[in-house]
Amino acid sequence: MRARQQTFLHAGPAEGAEAVTEVLLGEELTVLEEASGWQHVRLAADGYEGWVRTVAAETPAGDGAAQWATVTALRGHIYAAPAVQAPVLGRLSLGSRVCRSGEVTEGEEGRLWERLLWPEGWVNCSVFRPLPPALPELGLAFLGTPYRWGGRSAWGVDCSGLMQTLHAAYGIALPRDSGPQRSALTPVDRPQAGDLAFFPGHVGLMLDGRRMLNATSYHMAVAVDTLGEGEYGRLLARDLLGFGRPEWRK
Predict the structure, then answer these.
(1) What pLDDT sits at residue 58?
(2) CA geometry: angle at 118 spanning 77 and 72, to 5°?
(3) In whole angstroms, how far apart are CA 196 and each of 15, 222, 239?
(4) In 3-state terms, what secondary structure has residue 75?
């Protein structure tokens, strides 16, 4: 099954339960059980489990033969028609999965639009733009994104969710939480751009030897901090656990 909308997994079958992670549109998941209008599901990408409303998951018609594509824009919308004035049917995020039709039309001001087979609607072709050549460059595009506990998208993101989403865009699988992320990487003593820095319950992406991109409740946003400089930078330097490097960067 796939998530038919961007939503959150909750710790229990109740709206007031803690959000444990965010599910992106089109993510594959397995339904483990159902209870009172809720589904207990497991995400295929990282094994994370939680509860979603029953309407949040479905099996698209022709799923096995569909031409699935990954959204590469930070965020976007699905429209009822190929025009910016058309009603918005849903939202997209970096990493969302949709089924493209190949039917493209030119709208106002030369904008190109493509019809989706699933979910039904139209998207501006810019949602399939090329990724930046380097992961840190994509990370910097998230600057100013609001901090959101459990978030994994440019609509709102937490520290480990940002790391997982950035790496997934380049085909690199990371666990969901900072502790397992640290265990999955190769420790390094001298960080370089693209390495991850770890702290108790926190993780950030190094931009060079000292500057770090991170989603933090201290700023309530994605920001760049320098280890050892400023109030928060000094706190980070004090609590630093170490640095890790993904296998692909060895």
Answers:
(1) 74
(2) 50
(3) 33, 15, 14
(4) strand
Q: What is the pLDDT of residues 189-224, one digit of tens each?
A: 999 999 999 999 999 999 999 999 999 999 999 999
The amino acid that residue 172 corresponds to is I
Confidence of residue 250 (pLDDT cuts 50, 70, 90): very low
Name residue, tokens 């706190």.
235
Residue 109: left (phi > 0), alpha (psi -120 to 50), or beta? Answer: left
Instruction: Report residue 56 as tokens.
Output: 């949040």
In 27-153, the DSSP E strands lie at: 29-35, 38-43, 49-53, 57-58, 68-70, 75-79, 88-93, 97-106, 112-118, 121-124, 152-153
What is the C-alpha separation between 97 and 197, in angstroms, rounded? 29
pLDDT (0 to 100) of residue 36: 87
Rounded to whole angstroms, the Cα distance separating 63 from 69 reads: 12
Which H or E element spans position 183?
helix 178-184
pTM: 0.93
- Is the preceding omega at residue 180 within 30 degrees of 0, hence cis? no
